[in-house]
Design brief:
Blueprint lengths: L1 H29 L2 H4 L5 H27 L6 H23 L4 H8 L1 H4 L3 H11 L1 H8 L4 H18 L12 H14 L11 H29 L14 H16 L8 H12 L1 H8 L5 H28 L2 H5 L8 H18 L1 H19 L18 H8 L1 H22 L2 H26 L12 H7 L4 H18 L7 H16 L10 H9 L8 H8 L1 H7 L14 H19 L10 E7 L12 E2 L5 H9 L1 E6 L7 H10 L13 H4 L17 E5 L8 H8 L3 E4 L20 H13 L5 E6 L19 E2 L4 H28 L6 E7 L18 E8 L1 H5 L10 E2 L4 H8 L6 H12 L2 E2 L11 E3 L5 E3 L5 H18 L15
Parallel strand pairs: 1-6, 1-8, 3-10, 4-5, 4-6
Antiparallel strand pairs: 2-7, 3-9, 8-9, 11-12, 12-13
Helix pairs in contact: 1-3, 1-14, 1-15, 3-10, 3-11, 3-12, 3-13, 4-5, 4-14, 7-10, 7-13, 9-12, 11-12, 13-15, 18-20, 18-21, 19-20, 20-21, 20-24, 21-22, 21-23, 26-27, 28-37, 33-34, 36-37, 37-38
């Protein structure tokens, strides 16, 4: 019974000590308000004492480890167990928080080179040579040893200079030193050690000084420096006061025969938690209360104790690792290292072909990056600094190259599992990967995007490659090489378990790509944390950032819309009849045809008046003319689906009338994920005999070259296209062409054709970054609660807007002189991503300026200004344009007209698979779906059904007269 009580008391003391240490670490990481404010408080003094005692406990633990734990070669096995546990902890914390960095991953996988848990490694290192240290310490008196330690720890503490490289104690040297001190103590019978009055006085002074320093240093630091910069100077494991108190507690404990027994694994796991910052960071994860931190400290301590007990039980029963690593008590560390090196050399010799295979796959992985850049430059925007793709891939994207290597290796293991032939599997993998890389390179060269999943069945890209070599010669050569290698260099066969494991791993990993774009999925969180950047807005960039194979997998997960239970041909036909009648009713009062108008949809890059934001005040209005136009014509605010990006999504909605919020959250960019899958896509330009897209920048962004062609645009004018951008003026040092230039090119297109036409103009002038490009930046002084860097960006951005304002004025004056009906739909696509104090889910973060202006000739021939419409969605522009130009509508545009008139504005940035959609009323208040009237719900569901049919369904509507204007 006494032994049981003793064990329970021992376990309780270890547990309480563990809670104190963990609680201190969590508070330090959480950095609560009382630590940030330069104010003295009871909590601050209590924390200082707690922090000090936690370091003392770690000091005692290290000394006890050296004193109690046997030193032998089998400690390497314990280190391997700790390594595995740390990996499992990393995975567990990732599953809990769904977040990590590549540095965290490297720390978990390569703990020695990354110095992940140095205190644990230092302790094990000392124990591995315990016998040598013990014999060495026997040469000196215990008092001499203590004197040496006193000098080593006193000098840095007094002079506040890290003379011996001990740092704050979280390192190998400090841990090694304190464990070595425990080993030195094991040479002495501490309980029989003569301690005189002087020793007792010194020990008492050491304890008192440590407590006094812990309590009074915050006060001294505040008085001396005006802050707490040196408040915790002595609360570190290398402080002489902390070390002295640790030694005192250890000696007193041994003298009183308290004999606290530290379970080996529990002690090592405690050191792991103490020295591994990632564990503490993820446990805290956010600002939380002290009570929660204390509760988590208790939980962590329980986990450490339980894991320590489990590892001890496993260690007793498991001996396979000992045999594999040749660990036995007769060996010492030096002969074992020599023996291990010999084994490693032999392993390399025996598996040289496997290692060569990995080198070849790594080379192919490197090629899959560099050949994605036709000009061998790293991905960059105009005006950005860039380097060669060779440097970028190897030094910046090394982690993605490793991921690509692993994916290629899985392909090889899949073939190996199927065929059980090394050379056949290897060469098939090399050939398949090489063909894919070359196909991607060719497509990027000609079309500025890599091969996408939707094109896998299109053999043209691969055919171009194979046609370069007579196919019979190609296949004979490959088969000959395989046969030669299999005969000349035969490799061992895999057992059925290895084969099955390789096949299953490949299937599971590649199959997980169907969840990559699901925001709440494990694979999405893992890849995002690892550094995968899908970059759907530019597939070429995506291939350069992530590697061709990962960018391919990024595009696999495209569940366009959730299946609609009401979807059927009968239901679609009924909807057509309903809106055909509505179109006839609308068309009775309209006299114009849309096709006879000249309609310009002008997306103005990042245009939104900063003056509208509550946190910002500008010295003058950069959009004074546009605001004046808004007062005399159809105008208001457009609700954008993006903040700082998402241009193509606004284009998609304005041209199709389909809200992106009805798509699955896996659809980041319809231009690259929806349009390629559709056999047909109807856009407003299809109603015109002539349509032109103009973008005074590159055509590869958002796959516009492919998309506009599929939309039916006869011309796409961009830099480098066969339809030349004639006017190329820039303002100041801005790397992008000016908006005035964009309008000059647009005017050329207007004047080149006398009849009605459609023009989709996407400007570029106000794209980020916002540097000091303009001479008038100083005219737009910014005031508000923000730093100077943000004010600088806003001021420069506003200066750019002022030039847009002047360009719009000039353009409107020019089209007013043209004798044909022209209507300009002008809108900003999104706010720039330069505002730090804005809630991205708030309405003000999504409000951009819009107006619809019809020129004099159009107004003289039936066009009319509508009343001010405060809020619109991008899908409303088609209906508003038809109404303003007094043009007749198709049944589809009749639906869009009813939606614009009757339905509150759709919040197109609230993605939810179309479930529980959110709307905004005329007062800017949020309206939920359940608050809509029955008629409004029917309208929304009708639009959703149309969208499903056109993008994810059977496209029944194209076989009806739903899109025909009678």
């Amino acid at each position: 019974m006494k032994n049981l009580i003793k064990k329970l008391c021992n376990a309780l003391m270890v547990y309480v000590a563990m809670v104190i240490v963990t609680f201190s670490l969590l508070i330090t990481q959480a950095n609560p308000a009382f630590l940030q404010n330069n104010l003295l408080s009871k909590r601050l003094f209590a924390y200082s004492l707690l922090n000090n005692f936690s370091n003392v406990i770690v000091g005692v633990l290290l000394i006890l480890i050296g004193y109690q734990i046997k030193g032998n070669i089998k400690l390497i096995k314990k280190y391997v167990y700790i390594y595995v546990v740390n990996l499992l902890i990393f995975i567990g914390l990732f599953l809990w928080t769904r977040n990590f960095t590549t540095q965290n991953l490297y720390d978990a996988v390569l703990p020695i080179t990354r110095n992940t848990y140095p205190v644990g490694l230092g302790a094990i290192s000392a124990l591995l040579i315990k016998d040598k240290l013990k014999n060495w310490f026997k040469k000196y008196k215990f008092s001499v040893i203590l004197g040496g330690y006193a000098i080593v720890f006193t000098l840095p503490s007094i002079f506040n200079k890290d003379i011996f490289g001990l740092g704050n104690g979280n390192n190998i040297i400090t841990a090694f030193s304190l464990v070595a001190l425990g080993i030195a103590c094991s040479n002495v019978e501490i309980d029989k050690l003569h301690i005189d009055k002087k020793a007792i006085i010194l020990m008492s002074i050491g304890v008192i000084v440590n407590v006094v320093l812990a309590l009074f240093m915050p006060y001294i630091s505040l008085k001396a420096h005006g802050d707490f910069s040196t408040a915790y100077r002595f609360n570190v494991l290398t402080s002489i006061s902390v070390v002295a108190m640790s030694i005192v507690i250890f000696i007193v404990g041994q003298r009183l025969k308290i004999n606290i027994k530290i379970p080996e694994y529990t002690g090592l796991l405690a050191l792991l938690v103490y020295s591994n910052n990632f564990i503490i960071e993820e446990i805290v994860n956010s600002g939380i209360s002290l009570k929660v931190l204390l509760f988590r400290s208790c939980i962590v301590s329980i986990v450490v104790v339980v894991l320590g007990w489990l590892l001890a039980r496993i260690d007793e029963r498991e001996h396979i690792l000992e045999k594999k690593l040749s660990l036995n008590n007769e060996k010492t560390i030096v002969p074992w290292i020599s023996e291990t090196i010999v084994k490693m050399v032999n392993y390399i010799k025996n598996h040289k072909h496997n290692l060569i295979n990995i080198v070849i796959l790594y080379t192919l992985a490197y090629c899959s990056f560099i050949f994605m850049s036709p000009h061998f430059t790293s991905p960059h925007m105009d005006g950005d600094k860039y380097t060669s793709i060779f440097f970028f891939a190897f030094f910046v994207k090394q982690h993605m190259m490793i991921l690509t290597l692993l994916l290629y290796y899985l392909i090889y293991r899949f073939f190996y599992g199927i065929t059980n032939k090394f050379w056949l599997s290897s060469i098939i993998t090399y050939v398949a990967v090489t063909i894919a890389i070359v196909a991607d390179a060719i497509k990027i060269y000609y079309r500025s995007e890599p091969i996408l999943p939707t094109e896998v069945t299109m053999v043209s890209a691969y055919g171009d490659i194979l046609e370069m070599i007579p196919q019979i010669i190609l296949w004979i050569t490959i088969i000959g090489i395989i046969i030669f290698c299999e005969i000349k260099f035969p490799q061992e066969k895999l057992n059925w378990k290895s084969r099955l494991l390789g096949i299953l791993l490949a299937i599971v990993i590649f199959g997980s790509s169907t969840r990559i774009n699901h925001g709440n999925s494990i694979v999405n969180a893992w890849l995002s944390s690892y550094g995968n950047e899908p970059t759907f807005w530019n597939q070429e960039y995506g291939a350069q950032y992530n590697g061709a194979i990962q960018q391919f997998l990024n595009n696999v997960d495209t569940n366009i819309m959730e299946s609609n239970s009401n979807y059927s041909r009968k239901r679609v036909n009924k909807l057509v009849g309903k809106y055909k009648k509505q179109a006839e009713k609308i068309n009775k009062g309209r006299t114009n045809n849309l096709s006879t108008q000249t309609i310009i949809f002008n997306l103005s890059e990042s245009l939104a008046n900063p003056n509208r934001l509550k946190e910002i005040e500008l010295s003058q209005n950069p959009l004074s003319y546009i605001d004046s136009v808004k007062k005399i014509t159809t105008s208001g605010l457009m609700i954008s689906s993006g903040l700082g990006g998402g241009t193509a999504n606004m284009e998609y909605m304005t041209l199709t009338g389909l809200p992106v919020s009805n798509f699955s959250p896996t659809i980041a960019t319809p231009y690259t994920q929806v349009v390629p899958n559709s056999n047909q896509t109807l856009t407003i330009n299809n109603y015109f005999k002539k349509s032109t897209a103009i973008h005074p920048y590159r055509g590869s962004f958002y796959s516009r070259e492919v998309v506009y062609k599929k939309f039916g645009f006869q011309k796409f004018m961009y830099l480098g296209s066969k339809y030349k951008i004639k006017h190329k003026m820039k303002i100041g040092t801005n790397p992008y062409l000016s908006d005035e230039t964009a309008y000059q090119n647009t005017l050329d297109v207007i004047n080149s054709y006398k009849n009605g036409q459609f023009i989709n103009l996407v400007t570029m002038q106000n794209h980020l970054p916002y540097s000091d490009y303009y001479d008038n930046s100083g005219d737009y002084q910014v005031s508000g609660d923000m730093d100077d860097g943000e004010k600088y960006n806003i001021s420069n951005y506003s200066a750019g807007l002022s030039y847009t304002d002047k360009a719009v004025q000039k353009f409107i004056e020019q089209i007013d002189k043209v004798n044909k009906p022209i209507t300009l739909v002008f809108y900003g696509d999104h706010l720039p991503g330069i505002y730090s104090n804005i809630d991205e889910n708030s309405l003000e973060a999504r409000e951009t300026d819009y107006f619809i202006y019809s020129n004099k000739y159009a107004r003289q021939h039936g066009a009319k200004n509508l009343k001010h419409i405060k809020y619109v969605s991008p899908i409303d522009f088609i209906a508003l344009t038809a109404e303003q130009t007094n043009s007749k509508v198709s049944p589809y545009y009749a639906l869009l007209t009813e939606i614009q008139r009757e339905l509150p504005t759709i919040k197109v940035y609230a993605y939810n698979n179309g479930k529980n959609p959110v709307f905004v009323n005329k007062k800017g208040k949020t309206i939920k779906y359940k608050q809509l009237t029955k008629k409004q719900k029917r309208l929304y569901n009708d639009l959703k059904l149309v969208q499903y049919d056109l993008t994810a369904g059977n496209q029944y509507l194209y076989k009806t007269k739903f899109f025909k204007i009678q």
